[in-house]
Write a structure and sequence with these properties.
single chain, 659 residues, alpha/beta, 7-stranded mixed beta sheet, 16 helices, 33% helix
Length: 659
């Protein structure tokens, strides 16, 4: 049984440390279990031949923060650098669908799970997901339990078709094995959600009881949804379940600073044993020591000035993993959702973290049409699938129309919907459009514009969530599992989090048995990483908003401006090279301050993480040799093979259930 601590904050102590040391203790690689079992074989994430690993940036990030002397191995004598240390079997950083699924699976397996989350447990990208979970609930091969071919989905659909739609959207740069696993195991995870209380939209004429819809890039109706607020419905059930589970401790409003990593004595790299964090409400410092650590911190949308991501999405987990030496891949594949609501009165300001409202792809799936400022439908001129083409194609089409017509938005025409249908199927969107712009989606054209939405790359993992750092796992948007390739298919993100959140635990169950208590003791006494707050610091990010860190806000503004102007929807070699220089200068400024006086605020810590992740995106874009999917470099067109593959694709078939 897990020894419970406060579900809100835990108990933390203050500490004093040097900001220059991250690796502090040399420990043996204890492969055997405490009971004398067989050594656990290492499992390296696969790197496919088409993948271009971000080697230079990743190594430089890790090297910068590991250059301090390792002779000072402890924070002072034999005493740990914290008054109180929290211990657990599985430490989960992040509380979205992936993190919650992982923690609950671990808890059900009898492991002690701790969830450390930056804000309230329900806050994160999952909460704002409108569309749903793509899962074929009508295929005997799906593994989703009893099969009902009378369901609301197209009976011609199958897991193999879901796989091919995913591969096609990703320009076939996906890892097919990972895609097949996700599509095959997804239906069972939908059943799990139903069992814990998620109420999906029903269809009275279906024996399964589920109403399935079609979204862009899908050949059939297969998206399970809860009206147009699926993520919020999922989070309510998952958070409630976690709060009630005796094996789960929840630490809200805790900002993870750096991972605890120590080199293995056999020279095979480093191992991860938890993380250091700071409570954003009290300023107390906490050390979480764990047998394995799972990064489920979501994406990095705030590195762009306009994003659908919540303010917590500053790339913290990816940056921490990069500093720890974990491999990061495919960060150049940044998805811009085609239809965020264009609202001039609420546009994000440079330097200020914020988000824009998303108009779900399901609206186009229900028959809505994109129109330019002249009122012309235009997507058929860019792709045979028209308004239901994959997101990268639609976003570039909108961007081109904005350039041609000199506007800063286009329109989404859903006036074919009756008011009753609009309110029934899209209540959340209808209410927000009405409140923000005074428009009715069944009567007025909705102004929309592309906005950053999703990072398809991330921390490199295998199909069990393992990274290149032993004991460190990554899942959800923070991970590069290979399922998305060069572009994510609509409603595959929640699916990925559900499937790989579970799979990571299946691997971790075996891993934690082999972690020796002496390794955890060494981690307890290890010195902290580079993001260190001086003891005398008064402002730790908890002061009123009016007393925020203006210097950090300026750094964020420069990062956002650079990313949009140099690495947006369309890119070129000159801008990418200039962007790398600009980001290097910003990063250098932050590093100098950290070295001289330590970290002064949570805003500054976020700025460092954002600069780190922005550099990974920019360097990935500069190094990729040909355009593909979400990465469109006008100086490096797609290869002849990619063009031939794209030209050979048939437009998505529309079955009777889709009409």
């Amino acid at each position: 049984m897990f020894v419970s601590v406060s579900r809100r904050n835990g108990t933390c102590g203050r500490w004093r440390a040097s900001p220059s040391v991250v690796v502090t203790a040399m420990i043996p690689n204890r492969e055997a279990t405490a009971a004398g079992g067989k050594p656990r074989p290492s499992s390296e994430p696969k790197t496919k031949s088409h993948s271009r690993k971000v080697k230079t940036t990743r190594r430089s990030v890790a090297r910068k923060y590991k250059s301090g002397s390792t002779s000072s191995r402890h924070g002072g004598g034999n005493a740990p650098p914290f008054e109180v240390v929290q211990e657990c079997d599985v430490l989960v950083l992040g509380s979205g669908v992936a993190g919650m699924t992982c923690a609950l699976e671990a808890a059900e397996a009898g492991l002690r799970a701790a969830i450390v989350t930056k804000a309230e447990a329900s806050e994160g990208s999952t909460k704002y997901a409108q569309g749903g979970v793509a899962a074929v609930m009508t295929d005997p091969g799906s593994g989703g339990g009893p099969v009902d071919r009378r369901g609301a989905g197209d009976p011609r659909d199958s897991v193999s078709r879901h796989v091919e739609d995913t591969m096609s959207a990703g320009c076939f740069l996906n890892d097919r094995e990972a895609v097949e696993i996700m599509c095959r195991e997804g239906p069972a995870q939908v059943d799990m959600l139903r069992k814990i209380g998620v109420t999906f939209t029903e269809d009275a004429g279906s024996a399964t009881g589920l109403h399935l819809v079609r979204e862009g890039g899908h050949s059939h109706s297969r998206v399970v949804h809860a009206a147009d607020a699926t993520g919020a419905a999922m989070m309510r059930a998952l958070v409630k379940r976690a709060a009630q589970h005796p094996n789960v401790s929840l630490h809200e409003n805790h900002f993870a600073l750096d991972l605890l990593t120590m080199p293995l004595a056999n020279g095979e790299g480093v191992g991860c044993y938890g993380c250091d964090a700071i409570c954003a409400e009290t300023g107390d410092h906490c050390r979480f020591v764990s047998k394995c650590t799972v990064v489920a911190t979501g994406g990095c949308g705030q590195i762009y000035p306009s994003t659908t991501n919540p303010v917590v999405a500053t790339g913290d987990g990816i940056a921490m993993a990069a500093r720890a030496g974990a491999a990061v891949e495919d960060m150049e594949f940044i998805q811009f959702h085609p239809t965020s609501l264009y609202d001039p009165a609420r546009r994000c300001s440079l330097g200020a973290l914020g988000s824009v409202f998303l108009v779900s792809e399901a609206v186009r799936g229900a028959g809505a049409t994109l129109r330019n400022l002249a009122g012309e439908a235009f997507m058929a001129g860019y792709d045979p699938r028209g308004d239901l083409a994959p997101r990268d194609v639609v976003a570039r089409g909108i961007y081109d129309q904005m350039r041609l017509h000199g506007g800063d938005h286009v329109y989404l025409d859903a006036t074919h919907l009756s008011r009753e249908r609009a309110e029934e199927e899209f209540p959340h969107i209808s209410r927000n459009v009405r409140e923000r712009l005074g428009l009715e989606i069944s009567q007025d054209w909705i102004p929309v514009v592309p906005a950053q939405h999703y990072a398809c790359g991330g921390i490199l993992t295998n199909t069990e969530g393992e990274t290149t750092v032993r004991g460190l796992y990554a899942i959800g948007e923070a991970a590069r599992t290979g399922v998305h390739g060069a572009n994510r298919l609509a409603s595959n993100s929640l699916l990925e989090g559900l499937v790989f959140g579970r799979r990571s635990v299946l691997n971790a169950i075996d891993y934690v048995v082999g972690v020796h208590p002496l390794d955890l003791e060494a981690a307890t006494h290890a010195c902290p990483g580079p993001l260190t707050f001086p003891r005398e610091a008064q402002h730790l990010g908890v002061a009123p908003a009016s007393a925020g860190d203006a210097e950090a806000a300026d750094l964020v503004q420069r990062i956002q401006r650079t990313m949009w102007s140099r690495c947006g929807i369309l890119r070129n070699d000159k801008d990418l090279a200039a962007g790398l220089r600009e980001l290097e200068a910003i990063t250098r400024e932050i590093e100098v301050e950290l070295k001289e006086s330590g970290c002064r605020s949570l805003e500054q810590a976020e700025a460092l993480n954002m600069a780190t992740v922005a550099s990974l995106v920019m360097s990935g874009a500069a190094e990729r040799e040909a355009s593909a999917g979400l990465h469109h470099n006008v100086d490096k067109p797609p290869t002849a093979r990619q063009l031939a593959t794209a030209a050979s694709r048939e437009p998505a078939a529309v079955g009777a259930a889709d009409k």
